[in-house]
Amino acid sequence: MSRNKFLKFGLLAVMAVIVARLFFIQILQHDYWTERAAAQHTLQYTLRAERGEIYMLDGDEPVAVAMNATVYTVIVDPMMASRDEIQSKMTEILGDKRIAEWDDVFADKSRRYYIVGKNVERKAAEKVAEAEFDGVWLQANTKRVYPEGDLAGTLLGFVNAEGVGQYGIEGALNEQLTGKDGLLKTVKDVNNVALSIGDDNVKVPAEDGDDVVLTIDRNLQYGVEKIINEQIKQLGYKNISALVMNPNNGEILAMANMPGYDPGDFGNVESAADYVNHVVEDPYEPASVCKTFAFATGMEYGVMTANSTFNNENVTYVDNWPIKNSTQKTELLGVVDMQTALNWSLNTGSTQVLRWLGGSETEINALGRERLYEYYYDHFGLGKATGVELYESVGLVYDPHADIYGIDSTYANMTFGQNMQVTMLQVVAAFSSVINGGEFYTPTVVKGKLENGEITGITPRKAVRRTVTQETSAAMREMLYNTRRSWRTNGLDAAGYYVGGKTGTAQVIKDGEYSFDETVATYIGFGGTEGELPAYVIMVRVWEDGKTAGGEAQALPVFNVLKTYVQDYLKIEPAGN
To answer: Using one digit for the tens of pLDDT, what is the confidence trace for 32-60?
Structure first.
């Protein structure tokens, strides 16, 4: 083959390859290369939504308790920056906000972007800017700050390093608080400057998160936490939780767990267990406070009144299992009425109510279990979510026909709050309905949204169901009032005030069985002006692993201090004033 022919065939082969390649690029990969070309002259930004802030109430005025502060990330371009010029000065300016070692920063100068400082406050950022270092620039970010420190830490939760809410309000309402990011997409010039021309320009504004106003009274929350901390020292127990609620609309005024933590320093805890809000996330056996619900159920079915009597032997047997009274006083043996049973928290008395619910004097049957379950679960909402705007646990209330050993003894124990798991909030919501005239309100910790300085989105609080009749409610208020005025608590409340309540001392299951070496103390009570519906409900829980705590010895004293404080703070006047 001559040289000319060789060159001719070679040229044709090259042209064929070029044509094939152009066909592949221009036809088969047209969309791909069009997008690549557009990307070269298109500037695209994510417009970050600002996280909504959280407010408590100071009277009627919202006060921010979770806010956004501008902080800065300091970035160095190792190719442009002079190490000799910036190292000593930047080390001094950044202090503990410096996150990189200088040897690492300048180890590879082809790396054009190295973060050397995070969460740098404004004053330090201004010093960096004033220094006008070559190859150093600032990037503005936001950081969640909590100006009240550890106030209501377990209620508020926190925002992690990725900007996602964790625990509490921050976690449960994360989507509402986060908002939605926007988008800016526009044509740019060779210097990355956005141009206003072009049909492909896109701007989707960011939707900032809602500013949420809580029902929590900031001053009341502070006072409750202060009292609890004092009581922890005085009583010598590690854990106390307390809840204050308006029983007439379900609004939560204070929710406290001690010890707590500072959401602004959320890493400074012993373990993740410290983040738990025991009021809503930690079901437990509340013990004899549940006699309130068993007695109210008995009244609803017409099988008992405060004056109904039974024969108390200080022990009764169900499924061949002995159910004993914690108080083994001989003067209580024999025929006693139900007011006495509540005063002395007789387990034999609440067990007798279960028998009466089944139409029997001596036996527990399916009808009695069904009736108790109907009120415990369906009416009072024990063992199911309340609907509060927080993460909450459900707990456990056994079905009356559950296939478990000793279902009758299980239900007998449920009349005095054992063999069941409920949260403090479930108990408070149910208790409130018993003493407020019989109306159940969904508990709420959210008042509304803050828009242009005004609280909006407030919906009228309406009862979602009736739990008991007004007659039963009045009778139970009187029984609880008389129980509090029994010899153990007489004289604690000034004349003109109407205060009632009930203790609970629960055994704790250890290694599969109830332990006598660890108990949890509870007290729940209401108060207000005599002759009027109660203005508040307070529940207290006291406990520590490996220790016994009693409702009367530990929880009642905490309630008494809180009751006086809440009564004074809410300016509740005695009757006759």
So the answer is: 545 545 544 444 556 778 899 999 999 99
| 401, HSE (Cβ side, Cα atoms, 13 Å) | 2
The span from the CA of 282 to the CA of 276, in Å, is: 8
CB 543 within 8 Å of CB 455: no
Residue 20: both structure tokens together: 């094939």
Q: Which CA distances in Å does 534 have to 212, 482, 524, 557, 560? A: 28, 15, 13, 20, 16
**Contact partners, residue 106, CB within 8 Å, separation at least 6:** 78, 83
Cβ pair 380, 423 in contact under 8 A = no
CB 447: neighbour CB atoms within 10 A? 19
Write the CA distances from 207 to 69, 175, 439, integer angstroms.
18, 12, 39
DSSP track, 54-116: EEEEETTEEEEEEEEEEEEEEEE-TTTS-HHHHHHHHHHHHGGGB-S-HHHHTS-TT---EEE
Kindly report, residue by residue over 401-440, the tens digit of the pLDDT.
999 999 999 999 999 999 999 999 999 999 999 999 999 9
Tell me the C-alpha distance between 414 and 424, whole Å: 16
**461 with 441: CB under 8 angstroms?**
yes
């083959």: which residue's tokens? 1
